[in-house]
Structure formats: C-alpha cells, structure tokens
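Duplicate of #3305? Posting structure anyway:
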C-alpha cells in the first residue's frame, strides 16, 4: 500500500507542477485512486476532484484548469499526510494515575515533587476552606479531600485503586 501511495504522490506532484497538464490522464489517475484507496479521506478527495478534472479535460477554460490544479493540490496534501512519518503513540490511552498522584491532583499539588507533611497539611487546609459542607461545599468532596490528605501523609497504608 505504501508503494502505491508513493507512486500516486509522485504522479500528483508531477501533474501539479506541469505547465500544460494532461487533464484526461489526471482524471484516469484520480479515478484509480478513488477506486483503489483504502483511506476514506483520500477516496473522498479523489471523488470530489474527479468531476473538475473531467471538465478540465473537456474544455480549455483557464478557471476550470485553476480549479483542477487546486483539487490536485488538495489530494497531494492528503497523500502527504498519509505518507508522513508518525512518531510516538498518538492513539494510546493516557497512563492510569496512581492513588498518590490522584490525591496530589485533588489537593492541587505538583506530581513529581517531594512534599513534607506540613506542605500537604497546608494544601489540605487551603482546599478544605471552599469544600467544607458548612461553607457550601459537598460532603462527598470534603470526604474525598480528607482521604487524599491521608493517602499523601501515610503513603504505604493505602493500596493503589
């Protein structure tokens, strides 16, 4: 499949850069791409370009030729995107946070910094001011806040959930 994409890319690039493009040949190439491509975006771009290329092959109107050249450019952009190297794991799910990291997020503390008990307690007090049920917060959020403080102060006493 990659060899086919590379050959289509080369052919489309030649068509776009040619001064007097053979629009009938371009229409044949685009029809082949629309028929043989496994990528939905490339197939759609080819199907949209085909009528314009056929029209450009039938008459010598400059505006139609410009539109056909533009459609070839769109197809070339799609092929470039398909053949560009991909780095990293783009569709990978984010790593699951540990219970300690979740507790740090609840308290608004940085993830990778060593904390003292006093810093944890200060963060707890700061967050508890707005989450306490007497101050208009929910009791569930306040309980979660206290649990997060306990997890950070006594890290070995709690299992990862």
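Output from current build:
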């Amino acid at each position: 499949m990659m060899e086919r994409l590379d050959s289509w890319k080369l052919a489309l690039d030649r068509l776009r850069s040619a001064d007097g493009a053979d629009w009938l040949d371009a229409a044949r190439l685009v029809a082949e791409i629309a028929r043989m491509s496994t990528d939905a975006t490339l197939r759609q771009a080819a199907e949209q370009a085909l009528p314009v290329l056929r029209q450009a092959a039938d008459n010598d109107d400059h505006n139609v030729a410009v539109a056909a050249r533009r459609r070839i450019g769109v197809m070339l952009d799609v092929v470039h995107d398909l053949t560009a190297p991909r780095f990293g794991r783009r569709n990978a799910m984010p790593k699951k946070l540990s219970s300690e990291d979740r507790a740090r997020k609840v308290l608004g503390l940085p993830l990778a910094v060593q904390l003292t008990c006093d810093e944890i307690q200060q963060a707890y007090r700061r967050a508890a001011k707005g989450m306490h049920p007497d101050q208009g917060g929910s009791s569930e959020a306040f309980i979660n806040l206290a649990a997060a403080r306990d997890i950070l102060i006594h890290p070995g006493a709690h299992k990862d959930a």
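Confirmed duplicate; merging threads. The chain has two domains: 2-83, 99-157. The chain has a mean pLDDT of 84.
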